[in-house]
Amino acid sequence: MNDKGFEYVLPKDIEKRSFEIIEEELISRGLVIDPAVKDVTKRVIHTTADFDYAESLLFSKGAVEKARELIKAGADIVTDTNMAKAGINKKKLAEYGGEVHCFMADEDVAREAKEREQTRASVSMERASKLKGPVIFAIGNAPTALIALKEMMDKGIFIPEFVIGVPVGFVNVEVAKELFIDGSVPYIINRGRKGGSNVAAAICNALIYGI
Residue 185: which pLDDT band, with cuts at 50, 70 and 90? Predict the structure, then answer.
């Protein structure tokens, strides 16, 4: 630390030091996180600098272990934004045989959504349900994506293997997340209005890096 308050950290050690600071602050705040989900929670805090996630992130029983099993088995990840897709370590995921998909910008998805008066996120989830093999859904922006998944489940059309539900916003965000809490599908959900594509990507990366 110099006289201007800067802490000198080598570039290669910045992330490591950041996680040390997060751990120190968790302790100072009296926040105790289950070791089974701690690395995921800390990466979300690292991405957002928001310690509220230490209390608002919800994990179904064995969620982290289940998600990592799916990744090791070659699961693909489907996102609801290209921003989330860009943030996920695709090279590392590919080592296990998986890839990341986002159908939101596809012209045929936009055209069908307009014709049906549906959101592109809803139509994207329908497209994603046709993928072969296991799929992890990482939703960081559109609550309608979660709603579409739940509607397909209720109709017996499709059952997702895993749902990461962290859309951000105000319209139907909280109720869409609640659709999956305590349900039959393994999940990582952030209760409340907070979330975002960066949070969805951070969760995916934490799951991938922790294998």
Answer: very high
Contact present, 200 and 164 (Cβ < 8 Å)? yes
> DSSP class of residue 94?
H
Tell whether pTM > 0.90: yes
| 46 is an active site residue | yes
Q: Give the pairing of strands 76-79 and 57-59.
A: unpaired
**Contact residues for 179 (Cβ-Cβ < 8 A; gap 6+):** 146, 147, 150
Q: pLDDT tens digits for 92-121?
A: 999 999 999 999 999 999 999 999 999 999
Smallest CA-to-CA distance from 67 within 6, 7, 21, 134 is with 134
Options 37, 38, 46, 68, the catalytic residue:
46
Note the maximum CA span of the chain: 64
Rg of the chain on CA atoms, in Å? 18
Q: For the CA atoms of 60, 175, 173, 184, what is the dihedral angle to 10 degrees?
A: 30
CATH number of 11-209: 3.40.50.10230
